[in-house]
Design a protein that fits this description.
Helices cover 26% and strands 31% of the residues. The protein has one domain: Nucleoside Triphosphate Pyrophosphohydrolase (Alpha-Beta Complex), CATH 3.90.79.10. The radius of gyration is 14 Å and the shape is globular. The chain is α+β, with helices and mostly antiparallel strands and 137 residues long. Strands 1, 2, 3, 4, 5, 6 and 7 form a seven-stranded mixed β-sheet that branches. Strand 5 and strand 6 form a beta hairpin.
């Protein structure tokens, strides 16, 4: 299966795990709020990629069983990417730790992330698509 990368929305207690991207020259979406995820490493499945990135970027280990939704997206010029939603069911939000990328990582109220002008718009739309499907089910 060919894909370039994966993103993961981790939802718990009405919050989503979000991180603020660096302002480095040459990176995409500098200074915007993002979700854990990134590029595929050799031999990884889309889910393995998303789970690894969550560990590297926020220090949170999730199990494949925590993932409740997935969808493949084709973006013109970017190829196939995957979007996953995990709901680990924690009783309290574990404190994330910032990895080697980004300026900040934190639990953000879901409505705040979805309403921000400084978040990556297509990730907001993908998360909204999941929420609409979950509500309809």
């Amino acid at each position: 299966m060919m894909f370039s990368g994966a993103k993961l929305a981790v939802l718990s207690a009405g919050h989503v795990l979000a991180f603020l991207r660096d302002m480095k020259p040459g990176i995409v979406y500098p200074g915007l709020w993002d979700l854990p995820g990134g590029g595929r490493e050799t031999g990884e499945s889309p889910l393995d990629c998303a789970l690894r990135e969550c560990w590297e970027e926020a220090g949170l280990r999730l199990r494949p069983a925590d993932v409740v939704w997935s969808r493949e997206y084709i973006r013109p010029g970017a190829g196939a990417t995957w979007f996953f939603v995990a709901q680990p069911g924690w009783l309290c939000l574990p404190p994330p730790r910032l990895g080697s990328e980004g300026r900040e990582v934190r639990w953000m109220k879901l409505a705040e992330f979805l309403g921000r002008d400084d978040a990556i718009a297509h990730l907001q739309a993908r998360l909204q698509a999941y929420l609409q499907e979950a509500k309809a089910a």
